[in-house]
Design brief:
globular, alpha/beta, 299 residues
Length: 299
Amino acid sequence: MQLGFIGLGRMGANMVRRLLRDGHEIVVYNRTPEKTREIVGEGAIGAFSIEELVGKLAAPRAVWIMVPAGDATEAQIVELLEHLEPGDTIIDGGNTNFHDDQRRHPDLASKGIRYVDAGVSGGIWGLQVGYCLMVGGDPAAVEPLVPLFTSLAPPDGYRHVGGPGAGHYVKMVHNGIEYGLMQAYAEGFEIMHASDYDLDLGRIADLWMQGSVVRSWLLELAGRAFKANGQDLDHLKGWVADSGEGRWTVQEAIDRDVPAPIITLSLQARFRSRQDDSYGARVLAALRNEFGGHAVKTE
């Protein structure tokens, strides 16, 4: 199948490689031409402008956008609309807010352009093991793209989960759950790291992968991290970013009156990680000193 692909970052480039490996014809464009040239050397067809990319695709065209959500994706859609024709399809594979999908779908439909949202999970390991794909959109827009989805995904790793926005909605909640899982692992390993026992955390992670109810791919990655970096992780700073989905999941829980304390607290823990010296913690220390005479540490 022929596909235009915009965005050759770590995930995008590997997705193109997986599609090429399955025999698809992929026309690629990236803002920095060096990445385009690199993947052309692996069998893709290069384009160095959006106009050129669209011109190399046969109608009806399908173009996958794999760039950061928000302004970057909006800019690519606006530029694509200058060149696409009715019957063409845009697939947004980034971590877009599902509200944006719900806004875009009718707007693009009024211009005759189909729109599909694809939540993609798999990270840098997707080339090897496949990408889990959560796809939203009208069936008429999704069905022609199934050969692409089945090439990208492992067996049973692709599903059309619902109408416009549903793919990114499911991916949003997926990432919210991921926040909670990661935080639980981080806290458990910190407790063991602080204990009086001389524990090998990497070997414990491996042990838990053998039949334990807490085994998971994240746990496997924790074991890899301890072995590669040392379990003290001295060279890392405990600064943790969030890409938006955790916030959106918490907001959706609030909007739907659904209690989600674990995901919410996991998000708050990421915020706390970005403070070298928390003012709130200093207030707590001052209050404990004032009401109970508890010891405080001063600089």
